[in-house]
Amino acid sequence: MNETLIEKIEARHSKSKTWRLSNKETGHFLDVIFNIDLERKMRTHRNFSFSRFESEQLNELMRMVPSLKNDYQLLIDQQTVGLAYLPLDHDKAKALLQQIG
Q: CB-based contacts of 91: which residues, under 8 Å, 6+ apart?
């Protein structure tokens, strides 16, 4: 069974938040960057919880970690999620991955 590790690697208040989802067996990882401007916009809109959005997005992306063959980065910003502020499903996210290195 593949084990996925989750760690926050950037959490400063004035910076975009970055989470690393990594496959313990292969060592390959996905860095997920939540743009600080998206977070600020979501916090100003009534009924939008950024923490909930962040959690739901990470849970969805965890499904792709066992199949990673390289290391990747994914930027989550206004352009990728749109005005509905809904998390990307893992199929749509795959098309947006940028390989690192």
A: none
